[in-house]
Predict the structure.
Amino acid sequence: MNRHDLPVRLAGRPFDQRRQLPVPYVNEHGPGSYDFAVVNGRRAVECAREQLCGACGHFITRQLTFVGGLANLLHNTYTDPPMHTACTDAALQLCPFLARPRRRPRPTTATAMPAGYRDLDRSRPLAVAITDGYATRLTATADGVLLEFHPEPWQALHVFAYTDAGLVPTAAAAGADAVTDLIQQLRETHRD
Ligand SMILES: [Zn+2]
């Protein structure tokens, strides 16, 4: 995927020429200022309040897609805002960490990962889950206040594993009951 293949909404974002990545809405910190490693807390709150996609910054009311690891899924807690399904598909293809898994990220490039991918443990599954709503909660931390997203029951779940060939789909479920069953399977399979 190159810049011209981006979903229309994402194509309108500022573009980092060096990394060949659109700048996610939540990673923009001011005009011409962005950091792929640091979520702008004000933007995250704005996404929650105005119902915006964390990647493109446009309105999103249904088919809200949350990307995270198993811990996010099992605890039903996310710190990155949801995205459009199309924006998520693009992110999965564009993220240098995901698209070129053989390239060992150096410390300097590790910070170049788009929001949502920084802290993922590659020995664990990646979960892409879709819902139509969420609640938010502010939690006090040592550094200040953390905004958490708590999705409503999932409509669909897609599970991926990291391999030498990249991200490979390993399981999927559609419908709340099937998703609940799949999450239970994952909980048992990956019990530490
Ligand atoms: Zn979007």
Summary: The helical segments are 8-11, 41-50, 70-75, 85-94, 96-99, 107-110, 176-189. The two ends are 37 Å apart (CA to CA). The first helix runs from residue 8 to 11. Confidence is low (pLDDT under 50) at residues 98-119.
